[in-house]
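Fold it.
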Amino acid sequence: MTRQLSTRGRDARSNVSSPLGPKGVKTRQRLLNAAERVFGELGYHDASVAKITELAGVAQGTFYVYFGGKQAVFEELVADLSRRVRHAMSVASGQGRDRLEAERLGFQAFFRFTAEHPALYRVIRQAEFASPRMLHWHYEHIADGYAEALRAASARGEIAEADPEVTAWALMAVGEMIGMRWILWDEAKAVPPEILDRTMAFVARALGVAAAPAREREGPNG
């Protein structure tokens, strides 16, 4: 099932049939950036191609060179945000000396991305109704990579043995809810240090390892 969703969710939403030049890449990204703001602020129902192109400073005719319509640009926006947040978390967690530190760095990267792109939550939630397949694609891609990392950490003896898929989905929920409460609702730039420490203490217990003192785990948001 995951493989099928992955194939369908890939760049099939794009209206471009040939590689883009530098100018085309910039124009397409400008449209996606505008779409992020329009869908984030107005919601899928009230968003329109006209509002996206107006904000992007692009003619409506140019829009259709890159996207087939509102649905297509929305689905590509979900894919774009998903790829970028996964990349941010992967790069950050890859710097961890062990799995617990990787978790802290990954959570911090997610919280930073959320602060910089508050529309992420709104767009993903809109996908439940506007494009359920892209909602599944987004979460399953994150979960697949997460579960694999947890499986590897367990094999190295860094965390307790547990179902890596269940653990991945559970910790994803933790990060999403903490980010919603202390980043999105508070319109903050970072999760408060004490909340991050308590979150990581909970994550440590979930992974069956001892949490290190906060001073030893300080990071950009620590």
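The two ends are 38 Å apart (CA to CA).
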